[in-house]
Predict the structure.
Amino acid sequence: MPRRIESHWLPGPAGRLEALVEEPDGEAPLVAALVCHPHPLFGGTMHNKVVYRMARGLRASGAVVLRFNFRGVGASQGEYGHLEGEIEDARAALGWLRGRYPGLAFALAGFSFGARAITGLGCAMDDAGEAARFLLAAGFSPRLGGMAHLETCRVPKIFLASTHDQYAPRAEFEQAYASFAEPKRVVWIEAADHFFAGGLETLEEAVRAAAAEAMGPEAGLA
């Protein structure tokens, strides 16, 4: 699938943020989706292979996709914000995306640390009466912090989990998942590790299918 891609600088709370926007080919986008990358202190960037695959799957489902580097990553300004700062970066990036595509519903997606950021942001926005169409969290680890917000979050939540995730073993994830509010679903991807080694193509197709289903017939209505 040919890529239609643009580079942008976005205004962020700690300085400008480096970003890429990709539209679906040959059709108007149905949903505006933000994708967040893994941990900034451990090599996470918007070019991470899982993030790339998630973005491509979302595009195939009909979404326009914005990826960006959190503060202090790549050419983005600022310093690591201990998740709270990165959630605010995501909020700013989402605001830019929604401003560019004002007629579209929005969705949030992320991998690992990015999954933490988008669930935190998405559930907070839901509490404020502004709900995403869906949250798509890959490699979500219960070990990265509190999860109380997910126990009351009413946004549709889709979790993509590796069968051999060293940071989120299946039994540990399932115990946490049981406490999360409906609507929710989990898709298990046969893969060798947290980074979906050997399962990236399956992951991409799972993203496409899950997003297409979650968008529904009224995806263009914000």
